[in-house]
Design brief:
Elements: E1 3-9, E2 13-19, H1 26-31, E3 41-55, E4 66-74, E5 77-86, E6 90-102, E7 107-114, E8 134-142, E9 152-159, E10 166-168, E11 179-183, E12 186-193, E13 199-206, E14 213-215, E15 218-222, E16 225-228, E17 231-232, E18 247-252, E19 259-264, H2 276-286, H3 293-298, E20 313-323, E21 326-336, H4 340-353, H5 356-359, H6 368-377, H7 386-396, E22 414-419
Antiparallel strand pairs: 1-3, 2-3, 3-6, 4-5, 4-7, 6-7, 8-9, 9-11, 10-12, 12-13, 14-17, 15-16, 18-19, 19-22, 20-21
Helix pairs in contact: 2-7, 6-7
Length: 422
């Protein structure tokens, strides 16, 4: 019986939408995204990409280790043709792919097209009998907008070499889709199982938005310096006006989904030329907003790998690298730090001792956007969309407010603030 493959895109979700007009509001901009005549709407659009396999009657059918070729297109330019093994009826190509982005600097698009027909297995392929099913993270696409709304949405990001993953939120009802919709706020457990019944679980909390502004105090820092901050649950809890304080520590708060930033008034000269917005954006991106095991267990918020010259502790995790602009999953050795302060301090040291970062302009960048592109040129990441992802986070959370030229303060103060970026 003939089998046919189709490329499918999950429900796209827009991480940020805005216009370059100070008077524009986010909801209005988002409603205009479908109007191609609006050129000044800036946004990042993400979606899960997968391949569905169907029989000649249009019904979903098992792949049984058939193969098919597909080709990626980045901003309209064709990439290498790659092969994927189809185990179940639905095979993920990429989770949470950045499929479209429009910024003031550039436009980016990503798509996948089939290149050939389904080739049935000759019976020689054997799935690895290794239990490695892992839930990498649970991505909160949308919080419940109000108590009783039941409009929350999450995506379970998982992987397994055995393939044919199934997903559940109650360990009873299973589905091949990794997106769950129409959820109420509350505590959940995500469950997965693969073709050899290897399983993994991960608890998570889906927040219900109850209110926004809660307080608006002014803190006297001494020496005539004051810090004004406002606490809001969504989307950013903390903003502050002093712009000459580097972030020296980040750790999980006592409340759910809360992150604590420690901001120190003593400016480190070694970090003076590193954009604060890029600091925060990289920490968010590399650690999945503090949810990754590398960040939680090993205080490595920046995904810094351990070379043979590294004398400290190490840990090995599976990660996605890009070879010739194509994603490849591989195991990598990362640095493990005893404390968060050590991890953040090593980020500065790592950039300083590796001369390629100075050579490619990381320390001489005029803007956070330029610095984001310099990180890619210097080899900090292999993902060709890395600068766009950093810029998207910077724009979404207005992180550039921390980036005016720094001046060493006359006094030293330590402030602890809380944010809820995710």
């Amino acid at each position: 019986m003939a089998k046919y493959a189709e490329i499918k895109y999950g429900q796209p979700y827009i991480v940020h939408a805005d216009t370059n007009s100070p008077q524009s509001n986010n909801s209005n901009a988002q409603s205009r995204l479908t109007d191609p005549s609006v050129a000044n709407v800036y946004y990042s659009k993400y979606a899960d990409i997968y391949i569905e396999l169907k029989d000649e009657f249009g019904n979903l059918t098992e792949g049984n280790y058939a193969t098919i070729n597909y080709q990626e297109y980045i901003s309209g330019q064709p990439g290498q043709i790659r092969q994927i093994t189809l185990i179940g009826s639905v095979t993920p190509v990429q989770y949470g792919a950045l499929i479209e982005q429009n910024t003031a600097e550039s436009y980016f698009s990503y798509s996948v097209r089939l290149a050939g027909v389904v080739v049935e297995s000759d019976g020689t392929y054997t799935p690895p009998n290794i239990c490695d099913a892992t839930i990498e993270s649970v991505f909160i696409n949308k919080k419940e907008s109000a108590p009783g709304s039941k409009d929350g949405q999450i995506t379970i990001v998982a992987s397994s070499n055995a393939g044919s993953l199934q997903y559940s939120l109650d360990n009873i009802n299973w589905q091949p889709e990794f997106v769950f919709k129409n959820l109420s706020g509350g505590s959940y457990t995500a469950y997965i199982k693969d073709a050899i019944d290897c399983r993994d679980t991960q608890p998570f909390t889906l927040e219900t938005i109850a209110s926004l502004l809660t307080n608006d105090p002014v803190i006297d820092l001494g020496g005539g310096n004051k810090s004004r901050w406002s606490a809001a649950f969504n989307p950013v809890v903390f903003t502050y006006q002093r712009r000459d304080f580097p972030i020296t520590d980040i750790y999980a708060g006592l409340q759910k989904q809360q992150t604590v930033f420690v901001v120190n008034g003593t400016l480190l000269n070694s970090a003076a030329s590193l954009s604060a917005s890029d600091w925060i954006a990289q920490a968010c991106l590399e650690s999945n907003y503090g949810k990754s095991k590398l960040a939680n267990l090993h205080h490595n918020y920046f995904g810094i790998k351990a070379s043979s010259a590294w004398k400290g502790k190490t840990v090995t995790y599976q990660t996605t690298e890009y070879v010739n602009s194509k994603p490849v999953v591989a195991k990598q050795v990362f640095r493990s730090y005893p404390t968060l302060v050590a991890g953040f301090a090593d980020r500065v040291h790592f950039l300083q001792v590796n001369k390629r970062y100075k050579l490619h302009g990381v320390f001489n960048s005029a803007t956070p956007e330029e610095q984001a592109h310099c990180f890619l040129k210097a080899g900090y990441a292999t993902d060709p969309a890395y600068p766009q992802k950093l810029i998207s986070i910077i724009t979404k959370y207005n992180l550039k407010q921390y980036d005016p030229p720094c001046k060493t303060p006359s006094n030293t103060s330590t402030i602890i603030s809380t944010t809820n970026l995710k």
